[in-house]
Amino acid sequence: MGDYERLVTRARKKHVQQELVYWGGKRKGAGRPPQNKRSSERHKVRPELKAAHPLHVTLRVERVIGTLRTRSLYHAVRKALRSVLGRDDFRVVDISLQDGHLHLIVEAAHKMALARGIQAFQIVAARYINQAFSKARGKRRTGRVFSDRYHPKAITSPLAARHARAYVLNNWRRHGQDRGVPFNVDPFSSGVSFDGWKETAGSDFLGAIPEGYQPLLVSRPQTWLLNVGWRRHGLISVREVPGERARRLVT
Q1: pLDDT at 159 over 70
Q2: Are the C-beta atoms of 223 and 51 separated by less than 8 Å?
Q3: What is the tally of structural domains in the chain?
């Protein structure tokens, strides 16, 4: 071996396989951290949905916003509903405003239609809610209104459809928000426009709805479950209190 060959051989380095370090994967602390102390929905792939199956969607708002059951925030949400009212692939059928969250019954043609419909509603609602919040507090507020991801639950049977509609429209009775109120139907819901109430005798069964009251803007359902199916299990009483297993009437 010549001097050149010895020099080249001596200069070569021996490569050693290094241990691979994985930063992702299923381990404690991996993945995107939650945006809030209370995360409304885990970050995972949304399941496919069928157009025939409506959904019960819960939207939580930031804690600083507080209750949505005020006149100004009611009208902010009402304006936001107008922005999705004419969509063919996404419809809000029922809605109620609660303390810190919204309940909606929606219909969507497919998963992308649901995502885009909810996103469109949230963007407009956030703008109007921030405007109303700023006016009430006398200090301009910007930024996020809705906390983390929305939570959808598919409605796949007539009984589930009835339970979902009763839960959304009569949720105020579940939380005792009906006490001392001269209304039979939650004025912070789309109950005034609902045509499935059991009590239809007389024009005053809804209660003392204020003159000039503007109902929330919702769409007529197109799915069989929300049109016909749920009625097979009986109409909903304005005095019904939603429960996990059984329904009871307010005495």
Answers
A1: yes
A2: yes
A3: 1
